[in-house]
Amino acid sequence: MTQIQETKATCCYCGVGCGVIVQTDGRQVTGVRGDPDHPANFGRLCTKGSTLHLTARPALQQQARALAPELRTQRGEPRRQAGWGETLDFIAQKFADTIRRHGPDSVGFYISGQLLTEDYYVFNKLAKGLIGTNNIDTNSRLCMSSAVAGYKQTLGADAPPACYEDIDHAQVIFIAGSNTAYAHPILYRRIEEARRRNPDLKVIVADPRRTDTAREADLFLPILPGTDVALFNGMLHICLWEDLIDADYIARHTEGFAELKQTLRDYTPAYVAETCGIREQDLVAAARWFGQSKAALSLYCQGLNQSSSGTAKNAALINLHLATGQIGKPGAGPFSLTGQPNAMGGREVGGLANLMSAHRDMANPAHRAEIARLWGVDDVPSRPGKTAVEMFDAIRAGEIKIVWIACTNPAQSLPEQRMVREALEKAELVIVQEAYKTTATVDYADVLLPATTWSEKEGTVTNSERRITRFKPVLPRPGQAWHDWEIAVNFARRLEANLGRTATLFPYADVEAIWNEHRETTRGRDLDITGLSYRILEEQGPQQWPYPEGAAGGRKRLYEDGVYPTSSGKARFANTVYQPVAEAVDARYPFRLSTGRLRDQWHGMSRTGTVAQLFSHAAEPAVVMAAADMDRRMIAEGDLVHVTGRRGSQILPAMAGDDMRAGQAFIGMHWGEEYLSGRGHDGRGSFGVNSLTSPVFDPVSKQPELKHAAVKILKAELPWRFLVFGWVAESEALALQSALRPAMRQFGYASCTLFGRERIGVLFRAADDYAAAPELVAEIEARFGIAGVGVLRYDDAKRSNARHILVRDGRLQAVSLAGDTSAERWLKEYLEAEQPVASLGRLLLMPSAKAPQGFKSRGRIVCNCFNVAESEIGEALGQSECLAAGSPEAALSALQGRLKCGTNCGSCVPELKKMVLARPAPAKAAA
Questions:
Q1: Residue range 326-358, pLDDT digits in tens
Q2: Cα gap 861→902, rounded to integer Å
Q3: What CATH code is carried by the domain that includes residue 409?
Q4: How far is it, in rounded angstroms, from Cα 282 to Cα 16?
Q5: Is-contact 104 386, C-beta < 8 A?
């Protein structure tokens, strides 16, 4: 009998940093559950974290994972498998030759907030210490760099001053630019608990969309996109006017307030309400709640960060905290929620182009000298490195010849995708270090380096509240994959030899040796961890920094003594001035497009996209619009529309959303060309949502304005539709999805996603202004097994209609619909339910879309844990115990008792509450 082992680890998704207990049989991960002892989550997991084990199934890993080094020495050739020695020797020689010919700034590294801290440290030392270039940046530039700049500009260091425990002590929680219920669901569970314990706790949400987070707020401020600075300045103006500031705190612990005070004079309630598009009385209420509160905590994320004025947005919110003394005490402080699992760890080791280890500034000569001495090099380069967008611009311009991309997917995540792809085609050498070979960026790789991933890696991560967790492997490395730090170290040693260096800067025998060196760089710094060790982390569990030598433990919250890491010891008010969004709407591009997270998906979906059931809540890409905007344009639910901006266009189905304001639109950030593409309006291709987003970036943080773009939305006249869906062997599903990617580009619009639960299905959807070539249709159908004599066929060549059905063992196995696809809903649900089809007879092939008598659609899945659909919730809410419930809380409890929905991870609870509030009113008793 196989013995199940349990190992503690950390979830690899968002920056909450939840502890997980991983169950393995020595060969594969068999299950995960929340770690009840981990202080970040106390045993809770969201819908993504609770399905982590499904991403590690061997059948899926074999298709998705990069398992051996691959290289090509000439462009145009296919990559071939090669040994590690040959591959690293080739790269080292290329680097050395390029550096000799063009200088150290002719190479660049683009890395990731999903690396472990030790991986990050080695890459940073490789670029800045060995090669002598600051051209190393990270995808954290896309999510957290404005938070970094905002903290440094005001508080003096990139250090979130609050902790998760502050949620329990807060009297007011101000959520700005974050759909916390989706993006950080375990923290949102904690907010829900705090509200239950303290009915007086007020929650304010500022967001252009009425998200599930906003819907539950005591006060919702539906601000227009990009107006956050005006909002925060307006709130502080009111606090000043109504004497709600802490004058003593300002005098003793801050500087620069007089200058800001002059600026604030212009931010009158009337001006701010008009600028932000909100009611003046709501603005005043928000300011009073915040200013009068004994403890106000703000939580913020990409809505503030991903902006051409992201630093100012962060600083303006911190100004509000400083002026009211809402910092350095339980329940108070400006708390930036980190997007990625180890973006904080990357910031600690200087993973950004303008930083160095332990929060040192590249522009500071003394800081550079300190790092040079610690590393044993002559100097660290002073020339600013290229940040993310700048780096790919430089690659396209030919300034950077070689780019090394590790653990990230810029061909999905960066804005202005056309520019990014031109850059990758122009580069002389593209190296991709990845665990997953299915990402869009891998298509451009000259060298593919297979890396380990979650459940195989070893090192540390730091979450949003500065808490460091030790991460141990639970499975052996698959195939020929190496740890990220091992790849960098082995390459560095070869490069040293090629450059004629006699001593190595990389003497590490194991990952702990890297940690110990990183730890020493923090001595005397604001994030001093010289008192920490792997042993302490293993024996005592996760710890917060700072944790200096001699300390008994880490520090929960910072600045309790009012002393800040600035030259004066005082916090600095930033003189923040509102600037409109960089890309304004106009008559040509009248819609404000924003992007954001879906509940059950993560980033570019290289991991979550392997789990079919995570598509059940949002099954396919869509652009969400206000119903009034759709009505005015005669767009029906599901109609295809052109979403076109100044850089590109993408066709998508339209969906009405009651969270949308007129003139606004929303697309999930996750949909790259792996799942959504087409020929594009000019035939050059469309590559998902980031075909539309803007590369304009904040001048301080260099973070691009991914959250806002001006677009027009027009109905797409693509009369011919094509749809194929069917069950696929688990060992073939991801391979099929990847194989369909080239076919997607041959249609005006195409998408390809997974579905199912116990089994895996693939759904391919396409549309065009003419019927596709029969050969192309037959090729796609054949990949689903729809070929040969065993297929039921209906064909109407005159109308370009066809229905081809594969039946196996009396049940639907795969379906192809061309032209008229209106039978999709019931045929797909019949397939998913695996109902016998013998009773359907000719109905299977009749051109009519009419569903069988008695057929009842389940609709969208709301609760992923227990597979509970919208229709079942609606039916239960109509039952007597729910109708008779005297309050929404009682009705929710009755609903959960009946269906169990929302009783596991809780991710669906906000949506359940919304449905409860919309339930039919109970019938009045007869007189």
A1: 999 999 999 999 989 999 999 999 999 999 999
A2: 12
A3: 3.40.50.740
A4: 30
A5: no
